[in-house]
Amino acid sequence: MSSPCDNGVGDLMPRPASALGDRLARLTREGELYEKLPGDRVRCFACGHRCVIPPGFDGVCRVRFNEGGELRVPWGYVGGVQVDPVEKKPFFHVLPGARAFSFGMLGCDFHCGYCFTGDTVVLTDHGAETLADLFSSSPSVELRSDAEVASPADRRVLSGTGVLRGLKHVFRHPYRGSLIRIRPHHLPAIRCTPDHRVYATTSAGEPPALVRASDLTRGHLLAIPRAVAAAGSPVIDVAELLRDVRFTYRVRWDLSADQRELIASATAAGTSSREIGRVLGKHASYVRHVRSKIAHGLGTNERLATGPIVRDGYVRFPGEHGPGTPAKLSLDQDLAELLGYYCAEGCITSSRKRPNSHTINFSFSHLERAQVDRVKHLLRACLGLRGRVVLRRTTLAVAVTKASAALLFKRLAGGRSTSKRVPACVASAPLEIVRAFLDAYVDGDGHRYPSGKVGATTVSRLLAHGVAALALRAGCVPSLYETPMPREGVILGRRVRRAPAQYTVVWYEQPIARRRVTTTQEHYLLPIRAIDREHHDGDVYNMEVEEEHSYLAGFFAVANCQNFLTSQALRDPDVKAAPQEISPREIATLAKEYGARIVTSTYNEPLITSEWGMAVFREAMAAGLVCSYVSNGNATPEVLDYIQPYVSLYKVDLKSFRDKHYRELGGTLERVLWTIRELHARGFWLEIVTLVIPGFNDSDEELREIAAFLVSVSPDIPWHVTAFHKDYKMTDPDNTSVATLLRAAEIGSAAGLRFVYAGNIPGRVGRWENTYCPGCSALLVERVGYRIVQNRLVSGACPDCGRAIPGFWDVPA
Predict the structure, then answer these.
(1) Which of 26, 56, 439, 650 is deepest in the core (most CB within 10 A)?
(2) What pLDDT is attached to residue 252?
(3) How many CB atoms within 10 Å of residue 545?
(4) Burial call 27-52: b when 16+ CB within 10 Å, e when fewer
(5) Does this model's pTM top 0.85?
């Protein structure tokens, strides 16, 4: 028995410090699948990595770790459970129609790093937002094995095709290592881990496909979708936007803080107001007033203002003259224009002396009288407000003091120049609204050139990205440049502090030939100016997006999180991965209660939690249940020896027949092939699954090689060729067509495999969902997807010719 493994230390990481890490460290026992080495190191035998782990470090799986020379392994919890037909595993030659009770832990022995830095800008229905901001603004964050998973509320992001899709999760986890910095022409660089996949092509005649960042060259073109969706509401719910607005204001006192403290302590001691007033030189009635304020918690220098009042269709704040601001506003072109002027030239000021006093200011040059008059008209038309013109030494301003309106503009678009952003309502509005906003923004703080070039500058990074996104919506390819600025400058003889960077957005309203942009029917393709690497030691982020599983990072289409990736969560998004403490007997009892006949360790890689799995399986076998593994096949002789007394069924994902693809995941093809041969030789009931992915493993040559290998092990091994599609939890370029899947099944059958099945396209693959007798071709088990239509087997044999059909057919119910 040969074993082509012993990979040494591998990708080890120090134990992460976190509340979840502490909890998971407590939910461990000493493992059995390891040996002790000199220097308190240990060698783990649970998977083909055979990690040599120093004290204080994790293995590649992140859940088996060395504590003081002892290997600690997961014990006493599950990350999730599920009850499914056994056909979903998929096992087609095992107890047709039986229920399988699946449990999963945390961790994986393959690794796929698909992440960006937190400052990466993504485009959402709320405008341009960074990954870090999306994570921090989420109402709930769940701790997973080495990551945190945030679940944003009601947020959609632009996918790689320019369609708004639901955002399910944002992941954050620590990363130390190399980042790829991709610097395209016209747009800012994006930084990601080497394994992250980016949509790119080398020719305008070839559609963009996913390419690992580390494989990109200067010959690649990055893809930006041309069609960008609009799905915003034409109504702004002002009352809802301002519902939770609170702010503090300073209170002027005739008494110092020490004097107020004296009043409080003297009051507590029973001293009268008259006596206290005599000491302070104040009238007794004033002392009584101060005592009352202190008693009601109002004796501080700052107070929290009360929230808004909604009445008669208007919103206003206490102390603000009625009626206020309409509780709902229609986002028409006039209001979009006003918001454009605000983003270009507006700011909000407030008085620290007067609560609820907030002023909207629009500042123009002395020569921009037309803009001043236009803003006054828009304020009157949109909000019913009279703006006053204020002549200052360097500006001509329009100002209006109205707390509800000012706080609305601040909530929609930011209050300071460095925090400005395109309002969410504009970011996803129809095109005429977008153009009205852009025209006003450029009129206020930009320039139009005779050539059709349009340019504008800002000190807000998010506003620059938001304006660039609107230009893209308007059918123009934007350029965005960042220029570092000195911290101080001189304006009209005055020394001022400056923002650290200035951002310039440029686009052409008429296409010009000399720009480095290639336009196809579906994409703008931008060449890469440079690619380099840099070291990163900190958090990285990723997202899981519904349906297409792609998003725009810095405007470019990229793959989203695949299988929770380095977050080490469960692969099935319907199974919650928060650890739930439970005993082996409780799992077996639950399985029986749910009518299961099979217990399966799955979702994560079961090999790395084998000690716990066998504890569960001992109880399951005692309860008359059959035990199975759903695995990636990265096994060792030691772990197969360990599990063989308990595991009857074993499904292996054979992802590819190219070693390069396995090495990208941190494994080897030979290790998986060895595992398949060894499982069959040891008598496990074995079924193989290959997810057929266009452009990845769907060539005739590779499919023939897989089929030939399986035939060499045994022609009776069931081979499931399953279709990739974009609601499966992996992300790749194209859906697998029915024709491709049928071709794969035909290749397997022609190679001599007796049982080939095509899956993931129920009802469309004809005979390839069913089991037929290889002797007389009689229909034995008829299926539609995971549903058994009829089962004609008799004691595991064909009822027509009596031929025994390989499988695991009969056990006591």
Answers:
(1) 650
(2) 75
(3) 24
(4) bbeebebbeeeeeebbbbbbbbbbbb
(5) no
